[in-house]
Design a protein that fits this description.
By secondary structure, this protein is an alpha+beta fold. It has 20 helices and 21 strands. About 35% of the residues lie in helices and about 20% in strands. A hairpin with a 5-residue loop joins strand 9 and strand 10. The N terminus and C terminus are likely disordered.
Length: about 650
């Protein structure tokens, strides 16, 4: 191996002081420097106010997006301590904002019984990654203020007035040299703040966006807590029992759970630790699932719903149609990383399990009609699972993946390396024919679909196996579906939905995305699903290279650009593409399939709660909420073909 010729001595070893490490490697502390990381900055400051609420000292948090994307977060908690810190010899408030791992959240004798902040890095990281930060504190009869630039103290903490109130106001402007964008999404922040309000019973949270002429504002306060949360999640679903089941336990590890069953076929369980959304679950989810399975099986046996010859219900049978929120408070939580996505405390499993065993068993005994209704659904799910297993085995026999029997209409690619391969799922045989002729056969596969696709939001897995529209998709991707789905077996690194830019195309995209979301969710979570973006228009003129436009804005820009070159609008021929089939293979390749020139939209799932709500709304049984959604959002629709 060739050696890289450079000095390697003491002077080459970098020592990053203060918050330099955060600015050097921001992703280590907030996950990323994308919009997601930008929003995480707000959550870190809000979480400090929430910790005060969890400790019993804060009743209100106000968040404002000021003009210029300045964020202001104010709480009425105790206010950050202002006295000189014994170790740093500067004010405690300045220590919190300039020293990593400085916080009141460590050990059992800390300032907080429980806290979402784990590493004591929230405030200091936000400070480090901001162009400037201002902190105003009301405490001990005074008003105190300090300011920073890029994590460094500009004005030390000083008393600027008197006050008989308490609380903290933090204003900051994120550093545009670190973040890809400073454009906060109001809806994203609104959703997270609503979530926090559900999880912190009685805490009032407001958000205001002052960037537009007409400010947006929302206020959240839920005395019902998790019950209100589950009712919100199920607002567009048909319920099996009208009121959520509520379980609460205080003690060393407080646990709060709300459960409600609906007629849907999907399970939706959301878990939180100290108000932090643990999207990857962890030990609290494990304890909940174990208890749920045991309690319902024990009840079914003792009440002769399951006979002696019957097999036990499996966890997936019991969780079909469930909406549940599991919230635990842990003194010293063990998370995976600062972004806190999975709980690792082993003792929590037993706490949650025993608590749910006892409380849910009592509830079922006291509410036999609800117990019977839920178990009827569970038994029905069990039968459907068995039918799905038989259908799955039949599918495997007919087109065993092991023997690589692929759908007849699939034009496969020659490469077998999944990471470099992609499959286009194309609407219709006509477009499929053009795509097959125009593709690069080495790495691009084409799977044409035709006819009306099954809406999986209204069907169980046993109806999906063997379905002549979905089965080719399942077999082509090659990783199974549902509980059997194995992301390591996918045959293509990119699964690209290519449909017409009209109402029918949008419907097909939605049906496919619903299927992937409900039965191949890891495919979306892993970032393997994309939407192709075919052009809407073609501008042409004899002797001029064709210009393709993907939006109305693109079209107007193209007209202006061509006008600057002396080509008048009236001399140009405009073609509006109604469908992919109107393009010849060369056009389809150049505009929609060529990796050098195409536009692909990656489908991501940052917010499972919102995704579930939208799919239920658009594809579920409840008509009235869908009508309201269409009426509310119709004004935003563009390029609607009738």
């Amino acid at each position: 191996m060739e050696k890289y010729n450079h000095k390697y001595g003491a002077e080459q070893i970098q020592v990053l002081e203060g918050l330099e490490a955060v600015r050097k490697r921001p992703g280590m502390y907030i996950g990323s420097t994308s919009v997601r990381g930008l929003h995480h900055m707000v959550y870190e400051i809000v979480d400090n106010g929430v910790d005060e609420a969890l400790a019993g000292y804060c009743t209100e948090i106000n968040v404002v997006i000021e003009k210029g994307n300045i964020i202001a977060v104010q709480d009425n908690g105790r206010g950050i301590p202002v006295e000189i810190h014994p170790k740093t010899h500067i004010s405690t408030a300045e220590t919190v904002y300039t020293v990593l791992h400085a916080g009141g959240k460590f050990g059992g004798d800390s300032g907080y019984k429980v806290s979402g902040g784990l590493h004591g890095v929230g405030a200091s990281v936000v400070n480090a990654l901001s162009k400037w930060t201002e902190v105003t504190i009301e405490r001990d009869g005074g008003i105190y203020k300090m300011s920073f630039e890029k994590g460094k103290t500009v004005n030390k903490l000083e008393r600027i007035g008197d006050s008989n109130k308490t609380g903290t106001l933090v204003r900051f402007l994120a550093d545009d040299t670190i973040f890809e964008s400073l454009d906060y999404e109001y809806e994203v922040l609104e959703k997270r703040l609503r979530e926090i309000a559900f999880l912190t019973k009685g805490l009032k949270i407001t958000i205001e966006d002052q960037r537009e002429e007409t400010p947006k504002k929302a206020e959240f306060c839920y005395e019902g807590g998790l019950i209100s949360f589950v009712e919100y999640l199920n607002k567009n679903k048909e319920k099996i029992h009208p009121n959520p089941i509520y379980i609460e336990k205080t003690g060393e590890v407080p646990v709060e759970i709300a459960i409600q069953y609906t007629t849907s076929y999907s399970e939706n369980i959301y878990t939180f630790v100290n108000n932090i959304n643990t999207i990857e679950g962890g030990t609290h989810l494990e304890g909940f699932k174990r208890a749920l399975t045991k309690v319902f099986n024990d009840y079914a046996r003792s009440h002769n719903i399951l006979k002696e010859k019957d097999s036990n219900l499996q966890g997936e049978d019991i969780r079909e149609g469930i909406t549940a929120v599991v919230s635990v408070k842990v003194k010293e939580p063990q998370f995976e990383g600062q972004t806190k996505t999975k709980l690792g405390n082993s003792e929590v499993t037993g706490v949650v399990q025993s608590m749910v065993n006892e409380a849910l068993s009592t509830f079922l005994e006291e509410n036999p009609q609800i117990a019977k209704a839920i178990l009827e659904k569970c038994v029905s799910a069990s039968r459907a699972r068995e039918a799905a297993r038989k259908a799955r085995e039949l599918v495997r026999k007919k087109s065993s993946l092991e023997t690589s029997t692929l759908p007849g209409k699939l034009a496969d690619c020659s490469s077998k390396v999944a990471d470099e391969c992609e499959v286009y799922i194309v609407e219709g045989d006509s477009a499929g024919g053009s795509a097959k002729q125009g593709r690069d056969r080495k790495f691009q596969a084409i799977l044409p679909l035709w006819g009306k696709m099954l809406n999986v939001e209204k069907a169980r897995a046993d109806k999906i196996y063997g379905n002549d529209k979905l089965n080719p998709v399942i077999v082509a991707i090659g990783a199974g579906i549902g509980a059997d789905f194995d992301i390591t077996k996918i045959r293509y690194g990119k699964v690209i939905i290519m449909a017409d830019a009209d109402v029918d195309g949008a419907h097909i995209r939605t049906l496919l995305l619903t299927f992937f979301f409900r039965y191949m969710r890891p495919l979306i979570e892993n970032g393997n699903v994309y939407l192709a973006q075919p052009p809407l228009y073609k501008l042409s003129k004899k002797g001029m290279e064709d210009v393709y436009c993907y939006t109305d804005e693109d079209l107007e820009k193209a007209y202006k650009d061509l006008a600057e070159k002396g080509i008048a609008r009236e001399t140009l021929s405009l073609q509006r593409y109604k469908g992919l089939g109107e393009m010849n293979p060369e056009q389809l390749w150049e505009t929609t399939m060529n990796p050098e020139t195409r536009i692909l939209v990656k489908v991501t799932m940052d917010d499972a709660i919102k995704a579930d709500e939208i799919f239920t709304l658009l594809m579920g049984d409840e008509v009235e909420p869908r009508r309201e959604f269409i009426q509310k959002n119709a004004k935003y629709v563009k390029n609607l073909d009738i």
